[in-house]
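Worked problem 6 (solution included).
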Amino acid sequence: MTKLTKNRKLALAKIDSTKMYAIDEATVLVKEITTTKFDASVDIDIRLGVDPRKANQMVRGVVSLPNGTGKQTRVLVLCTPDKEAEAKSAGADFVGLDEYIDKIKEGWTDVDVIITMPSVMGKVGALGRILGPRGLMPNPKSGTVTMEIGKAVQEVKAGKIDFKVDRYGIVHSTVGKVSFAPEKLVENVQEFVGVIQKLKPSAAKGVYIKSIFLSSTMSPGIHIEPKSLGV
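Solution. The predicted structure is:
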């Protein structure tokens, strides 16, 4: 049995496990129970009443958090030479095509998002076995396969993220950093949950959003009262 650390015990002591917290309370509490020496990420976990094994109940989308994620997102743009200047001026960290495709084939995946254009998807598609399991495969639905390369890079850098329900029916995402003011975390969570609500599959029956938990890196989870988010 894993032994609880002193900090973990102190954090658990501040949380009432029988209570669901309003989002305003939770964003203050998550900062209080975080003891990491670095600026920890604040994460959200939403359990949905869907069966991800069925195509008509898959929940996947993108959201632009109003206050960003606080994370430096490393962006690779795989494009033809005529789009390289646009990608670089928009802030892409890596820009190119064949040389990066070769690097990825050799095992390099040191990026957070890959953006490409339709005309080169034939080459990029061959990387599916490497990029797919890492969640890096560009997808038109998430806006990462586009001719508007510059716009796509700027949106990702500003806090646009894509998400997908996992096989257990849970959506996981980062919604900010512990250093964010509580009200900024509230705004990000409200936006994220609002997008999840809009994506409810018509085939999903019963309770759609079953539970919402907020936590920071290495902290216990805080159970959120859905009504405080208009759910």
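Discussion: The radius of gyration is 19 Å.
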